[in-house]
Design goal:
Layout: E1 3-10, H1 14-26, E2 32-35, H2 76-97, E3 108-110, E4 113-118, H3 120-133, E5 143-145, H4 148-154, H5 156-159, E6 168-173, E7 177-179, H6 181-194, E8 198-200, E9 203-210, E10 216-222, E11 228-238, H7 243-251, E12 260-271, H8 274-277, E13 283-285, E14 299-305, E15 308-318, H9 331-334, H10 341-350, H11 352-362, H12 366-374, E16 386-389, E17 393-400, E18 404-408, E19 411-415, E20 421-426, H13 434-445, H14 450-460, H15 472-485
Parallel strand pairs: 1-2, 1-11, 2-8, 4-13, 11-20
Antiparallel strand pairs: 3-7, 4-6, 5-6, 9-10, 10-11, 12-15, 12-16, 12-17, 13-14, 14-15, 17-18, 19-20
Helix pairs in contact: 1-6, 1-13, 2-13, 2-15
């Protein structure tokens, strides 16, 4: 017997949890079902150890402030990313105040965001970036220094026994955060269950077929027992990480034509040595290696997971043909279609530096990885650090009218023309900007309902529909209010 519901959410990560929470707030009478193929939610990209936990607000990530050929710095993308993260903060604040989320410290903690660079060229770039960003209201409080004594106060592990001679500089924003997206995802799903949402684990969606009435027939099977079944839904969201491409292809929607994904894995060096952890309270990013994707920018991070503090350094790129950590070795092959093979081949031809980078990363043994860490932390000792496997990221490849095919970093929502099905492709800064991404999805997929939902959306997100950076006083007020609600102290 086929069950009929209003909404099926595929994938038990932060995206489905966020969209499900929105829909349960906006349309509590709708029947919502969530399917996750693994034994629990938040076991893939949303798991705390599978991502950096950076509350991505472009405070420290240099790739969001590109430098033009004339040396000018464009802050527009950084401002946009920050605006999106502020929406996440407001939404989480509202849910904390409503008792939907637990104490803020269980999923978000104040952690300064820093950028540290070496060499005259990168120092000049960082200083120019600082001069541009310090004038933006959302970046108020950013600090810059080339003084080893000041940087030592910010992050002692960076400066201890660092050799003199090479120019270095750092910026610091005390208002940065570390987010445990695994804990956040679990809490959101716990709340959804309490509201009557059916969250089914060990259930793998196999096929999506559009019905004559515009609804979707979702064919699934239980991974334990292999029993099959079907569900009919008016709307389907595919938030299944790299698996989303496969399901969207199976749906047959024309909007997915030309898309492919390139999987990149990662590893971290981790330490829980309390003497080291006590000396580093920051997330410190630097410049990416030549050819490296933005998600592989090296950084030394404070992490707080399940109440335990630790430090992570990386990520170091790995390669697997799987689209998920728990995917199939055939994923990279079975995605190929006549409509996407051209764009994918063009991406391969146009990105030799990425291939060179990946090969170099794969050749690094533990000793070489420790050498990379010592560029940040000169006193790092091998015995203090263990290697930890991170998550899989599926970078988007798609058609481009001018180039034929491009490799796209970031996230992208693919939606059918009638809005009845949507899926998320891509990687960072997805989790941090999940709220903004899902707001965009609501507008595209539910054009008839969005006007009626907007009063409630403004209650949940006071800046909904407006920008903060253009209104300094409002920006400061929102930052202060969300910091208080989330118990964040600089």
């Amino acid at each position: 017997m086929t069950e009929t519901v209003d909404v099926v959410l595929i994938g038990g990560g932060i995206m489905s949890a966020t969209l499900g929470t929105f829909l349960s707030e906006l349309q509590p009478d709708w029947k919502i079902t969530v399917y996750e193929r693994l034994s629990d939610v938040a076991l893939e990209s949303s798991n705390a150890w599978n991502n950096a936990g950076t509350g991505h607000a472009a405070l420290c990530e240099l790739n969001y402030t590109p430098e033009a050929s004339d040396g000018t710095i464009d802050p527009s993308k950084a401002i946009s990313i920050n605006e999106q993260f502020q929406q996440s903060r407001q939404f989480w604040s509202s849910l904390v105040e409503a008792g939907v989320l637990n104490a803020p410290s269980t999923f978000i903690n104040s952690t300064p965001h820093m950028t540290f660079v070496q060499g005259e060229k990168d120092v000049a770039f960082l200083k120019a970036r600082y001069e541009v960003l310090r004038r933006q209201p959302l970046f108020a409080g950013i600090e810059y220094s080339e003084d080893s004594r000041v940087i030592n106060e910010w992050a002692p592990l960076l400066m201890n026994k660092r050799r003199a001679g090479t120019p270095f500089a750092a910026t610091r924003v005390p208002a940065g955060t570390d987010v445990d997206f695994g804990a956040l995802t679990h809490q959101l799903f716990d709340n959804l269950r309490s509201r009557g949402v059916e969250v089914v684990t060990n259930r793998e969606v196999r096929k999506l077929k559009r019905q004559k009435d515009g609804s979707w027939n979702v064919t699934w099977r239980n991974t334990v027992g292999r029993t099959p079944g079907t569900t009919n839904a008016r709307f389907v969201f595919v938030g299944a990480g790299g698996w989303a491409l496969k399901l969207l292809q199976r749906s047959g929607i024309p909007e997915i034509k030309g898309y492919g994904v390139f999987p990149i894995g990662g590893q971290w060096l981790k330490t829980s040595n309390p003497k080291l952890v006590a000396q580093h309270k920051a997330k410190v990013y630097s410049q990416a290696s030549v050819g490296a994707p933005p998600m592989s920018v090296p950084h030394l991070d404070t992490r707080m997971v399940d109440g335990e503090a630790s430090l992570l350094f990386g990520p170091f790129a790995t390669f697997s043909p799987k689209f998920l950590k728990n995917g199939s070795m055939l994923d990279i092959v079975t995605q190929v279609r006549p409509h996407n093979i051209g764009p994918m081949l063009k991406v391969a031809v146009d990105n030799p530096s990425l291939i060179t980078y990946l090969v170099g990363e794969l050749l690094k043994d533990h000793s070489k990885k420790m050498d990379s860490l010592r560029t940040f932390m000169p006193t790092a000792q091998d015995e203090d650090w263990e290697l930890l496997q991170a998550g899989q990221r599926a970078q988007v490849m798609k058609k481009d009218p001018k180039k034929g095919g491009v490799l796209q970093f970031g996230t992208e929502v693919v939606t059918s023309e009638d809005g009845s099905i949507a899926g998320l492709l891509g990687a960072s800064p997805g989790a941090s900007t999940a709220v903004s991404i899902m707001l965009g999805l609501l507008r595209r997929s539910f054009p008839g309902e969005i006007a009626g939902w907007e009063p409630r959306l403004r209650e949940l997100i006071p800046s909904y529909g407006e920008t903060l950076n253009a209104r300094p006083e409002v920006a400061r007020e929102v930052l202060e209010e969300t910091s208080e609600a989330l118990a964040l102290t600089a």
